[in-house]
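Please fill in the sequence for the structure shown.

STRUCTURE ENCODING:
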């Protein structure tokens, strides 16, 4: 499970993290391309408490102002066949990075 708009809704997200039900959290925002956001601060807070969860990004194509693929998640699948299943395993393992750049 990937949580969009992390860390909201806060109570449900915290419960999911503590119970190990969440594989990744959406951290990147196309309109705020900085690492100084509430989502990043909260992600680090959970990492520091021992809750390892992958960073992911998503586009949220809600208007013509957002380019498709404006925020992307890359996951290292290693020697596995390139497929959704191998990508999902890599996300669950935390082998990800997100970008808004080429």
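FILLED IN BY: designer on duty
SEQUENCE:
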């Amino acid at each position: 499970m990937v949580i969009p708009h992390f860390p909201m809704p806060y109570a449900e997200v915290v419960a999911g993290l503590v119970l190990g039900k969440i594989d990744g959290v959406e951290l990147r925002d196309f309109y705020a391309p900085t690492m100084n956001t509430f989502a990043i601060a909260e992600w680090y807070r959970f990492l520091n408490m021992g809750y390892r969860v992958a960073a992911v990004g998503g586009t949220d194509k809600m208007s013509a102002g957002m380019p498709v693929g404006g925020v992307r998640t890359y996951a290292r699948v290693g020697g596995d066949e390139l497929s959704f299943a191998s990508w999902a395993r890599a996300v669950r393992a935390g082998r990800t990075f997100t970008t808004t750049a080429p």
